[in-house]
Amino acid sequence: MSESSKIKIGEDILIFIKEKNKVSVKDICKVFSLSKKDVMDVTDLYMKKELIGIEYKFTTAYFYITEGGILYIDQGIGSVDKKIKRDNGKPKEKLTILIEELNSQITSDNVEAAADTYSKIIINLNDMNDVSVIPEVLEISRIKEFLNNKLKFYFNPSNLEKPINNLIDKCKIALKADKVEESKKLYDEAFGLFATLPSDFVQYKSTIGDDLVELYKELNIRYLKILNVKAVDIDNHITELINTGNGYLEKNNFKGAFEVYSRCISVINDIPKPFLKRRMDLYNKLFEYYKEIGMKADIVRMRHELG
How many angstroms separate the Cα of 112 from the Cα of each of 69, 102, 116, 151? Predict the structure, then answer.
């Protein structure tokens, strides 16, 4: 991917994250048809500049916009958000751009952003010196009906409350059946819907939020136990590999010993991220093993040279 392509896609992703407030890496891959590696590569510069941040819900990575990122976009620095640059143009051109944005936001079900853009359109009409914008006004009228219909659904929290509660109930049932992986997926789905509840509905959000917090506590304990079992298995596997490698060392088979080291490196990365201490302990163990290979290889080489 060329640098210019990276910048263009990176800017589009930055704006997308701002519109969504928080979005998973998986969703970005889907929307922009990119691999996870490409997404991380493209967004690396923005993370270094602290325009976006990343956090994890269990093993799912989410990007979020920082205050610096919002300022970066709103001020139109660089070539980010080209609409802002064009906003300084003629009022009619600005109106056309806003209408295009509104259409796009409604199509993608980004209702809050669409409502914000619609308000900008109404304000922008006040700046028009030329009132001959009948085509634009007719288009706004057409879009307004779509927007109002979406807002009626959006601002009826019961439309989301029932699906969220159904997911919470299914999540609890899955936990009782010890189906922790399935329970986690249901929780993630419920949390995703919860995040879309309009902030106007404080009572609804508070009640459902309390249920999700309690569910998260139980799920987190159970899920960490699964991850711990996986971490222990990997730890034992690496210990067995090192024992095999030590057997090679006793026979001065340094090639075999180093191949064991390479296998250990490929396995250790599978240790779940929450277990940083276990990972570091294993890295230290591997380092000592690597040092032993090097020292014994040097001793054999020196004896051969002196021999």
Answer: 19, 11, 6, 9
Amino acid present at 289: Y
What's the length of the chain? Answer: 307
- The pair of structure tokens assigned to 95 is 């109106």
Q: How far is CA 132 from CA 91, 113, 126, 137, 138, in A?
A: 12, 27, 13, 9, 12
Question: Rounded distance, CA 293 to CA 284, Å?
Answer: 14
∠ CA 183-187-191, rounded to 5°? 175
Distance between CA 159 and CA 234 in Å, rounded?
Answer: 45
Q: What are phi and psi of 55, to 5 degrees?
A: -140, 165
Class of residue 303 by CB neighbours under 10 A (exposed 0-12, middle 13-18, buried 19+): exposed
Q: 261: pLDDT confidence band, cut at 50, 70 and 90?
A: very high
Distance CA 243, CA 239 (A): 6
Per-residue pLDDT tens over the stretch 97-151 = 888 888 887 777 777 777 788 888 887 777 665 555 557 777 777 777 777 776 6
Using alpha carbons, list the distances in angstroms from residue 221 to 54, 106, 179: 23, 40, 13
For residues 89-105, one letter each, b for 16 or more C-beta atoms within 10 angstroms of the residue's C-beta and e for the rest, the string is eebbebbbbbbebbbeb
